[in-house]
């Protein structure tokens, strides 16, 4: 069977024949994640995987050693469902030192299986069917199924290229008495936008005025470029107790497979979120939580080194893509580059992604995966650059073939 790249999950059709009697209504409106499917296809085609955002280089040695030690020292049973006490304490210390935010580890810190669980557990704990959740578009594709699974309606607000700014009047129009929450991914996937203090101020004012929550996905908080500064929305006026802050070890410490994330929220919010988490997954991997204590203590020099390495990879990839004929939107944070493909003359982003995969040997994510209406993403593609320099150089050599192949 020829592999196909599926359309944007929500509203897409599944390739597997279904027996309607055995399929719940809540799963009908989305398909497999295109991002994760691209990893499967990359393996199948022996392509350089610049699709799903995970590093192909090693995790920090001391972090790996701490996990191994934790297994040897018998951290192998369930932890308290909302996380090992010493890890929750380490998370609280990290936020006090870094952002001057105080959390009670007993009532306001919940450890979960990655920010993926954090996001859906937070939504399931707070949003009722029919309520609205505001999402900036383009958006990380999980938010489609996440909102579907709780029966909430998505209200989309456009981030406009080239700087991915939003129109405050459009944002205001999206808020109403039906709004339960706004999701803010900052730094932003897929665009690499870093929200400014002024923009966060606009969001905070609306959340206060309409008495809504904000759920912030801050998983790329340490991956910043060109002097960009990460400000948690929770630090803005009136936001401390109406923000649910989501983060994880995955991207900062290059351990995406460990599945260790956390949720910081006021006690009443944490209480409902913990109930969902308890019955979904019980707890995140116990030894990895112990390693997380060491990871969070690595300090600023670790983060500076991380940023310097990612800047080198970003700059390398921007050069490679521009030489291959892409028009790139320069990211200020995270590790993705959105690129304009409208000049290449392909029917759409899926046709282009297939060409890149099958003929050039590079996997990327079709832009439509990040939009409700696939047509809005037909001129875009997303590359990740969280890879070894040699992997990026291999991609560069393959992409250099595009000049002759496509013109
Ligand atoms: N955040 C990663 C991306 O956008 C993927 C994460 C995942 O697949 N769970 O590529």
Provide structural commentary.
There is one protein chain. The protein is 39% helix and 14% strand. Strand 5, helix 7 (197-209) and strand 6 form a beta-alpha-beta unit. The model is unreliable at 1-14 (pLDDT under 50). The protein folds into two domains: 20-58 and 301-404, Alpha-Beta Complex (Aspartate Aminotransferase, domain 1), CATH 3.90.1150.10; 75-296, Aspartate Aminotransferase, domain 2 (3-Layer(aba) Sandwich). It is built from 13 helices and 13 strands. The longest helix has 24 residues, at 300-323. With 407 residues, the protein is of the alpha/beta class. It has helices spanning 34-45, 61-72, 85-99, 114-126, 143-149, 168-174, 197-209, 267-281, 286-296, 300-323, 349-360, 389-399, 402-406, and strands spanning 48-49, 109-112, 132-137, 153-158, 179-185, 213-217, 243-248, 261-264, 327-329, 336-340, 362-363, 365-366, 380-384. Helix 2 (61-72) runs antiparallel to helix 9, helix 4 packs parallel to helix 5 and helix 4 crosses helix 8 (267-281). The structure holds glutamine (GLN).
């Amino acid at each position: 069977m020829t592999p196909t790249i599926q359309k944007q999950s929500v509203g897409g059709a599944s390739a597997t024949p279904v027996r309607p009697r055995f399929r719940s209504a809540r799963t009908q409106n989305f398909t497999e994640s295109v991002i994760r499917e691209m990893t499967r296809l990359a393996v199948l085609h022996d392509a350089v995987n610049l699709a799903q955002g995970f590093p192909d280089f090693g995790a920090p040695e001391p972090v790996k050693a701490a996990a191994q030690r934790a297994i040897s020292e018998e951290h192998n049973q369930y932890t308290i469902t909302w996380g090992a006490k010493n890890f929750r304490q380490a998370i609280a210390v990290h936020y006090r030192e870094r952002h001057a935010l105080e959390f009670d580890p007993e009532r306001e810190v919940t450890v979960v299986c990655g920010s993926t669980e954090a996001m859906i557990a937070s939504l399931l704990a707070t949003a009722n069917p029919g309520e609205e959740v505001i999402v900036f578009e383009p958006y990380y594709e999980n938010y489609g199924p996440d909102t579907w699974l709780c029966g909430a309606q998505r209200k989309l607000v456009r981030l406009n290229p080239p700087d991915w700014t939003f129109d405050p009047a459009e944002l205001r129009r999206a808020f109403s008495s039906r709004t339960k929450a706004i999701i803010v991914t900052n730094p932003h996937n897929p665009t690499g936008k870093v929200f400014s203090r002024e923009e966060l101020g606009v969001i905070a004012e609306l959340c206060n005025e309409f008495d809504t929550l904000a759920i912030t996905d801050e998983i790329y908080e340490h991956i910043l470029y060109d002097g960009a500064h990460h400000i948690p929305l929770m630090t803005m006026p009136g936001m401390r107790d109406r923000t649910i802050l989501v983060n994880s070890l995955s991207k900062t410490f290059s351990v995406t497979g460990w599945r260790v994330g956390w949720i910081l929220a006021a006690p009443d919010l944490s209480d409902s979120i913990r109930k969902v988490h308890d019955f979904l997954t019980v707890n995140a991997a116990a030894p990895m939580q112990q390693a997380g204590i060491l990871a969070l203590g690595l300090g600023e020099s670790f983060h500076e080194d991380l940023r310097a390495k990612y800047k080198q990879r970003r700059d390398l990839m921007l050069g490679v893509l521009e030489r291959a004929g892409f028009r790139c939107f320069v990211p200020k944070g995270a590790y993705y580059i959105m690129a304009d493909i409208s000049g290449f003359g392909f029917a759409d982003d899926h046709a282009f992604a297939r060409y890149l995969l099958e003929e050039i040997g590079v996997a990327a994510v079709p832009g439509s995966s990040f939009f409700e209406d696939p047509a809005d993403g037909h001129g875009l593609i997303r590359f990740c650059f969280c890879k070894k320099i040699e992997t990026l150089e291999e991609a560069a050599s393959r992409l250099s073939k595009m000049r002759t192949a496509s013109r």
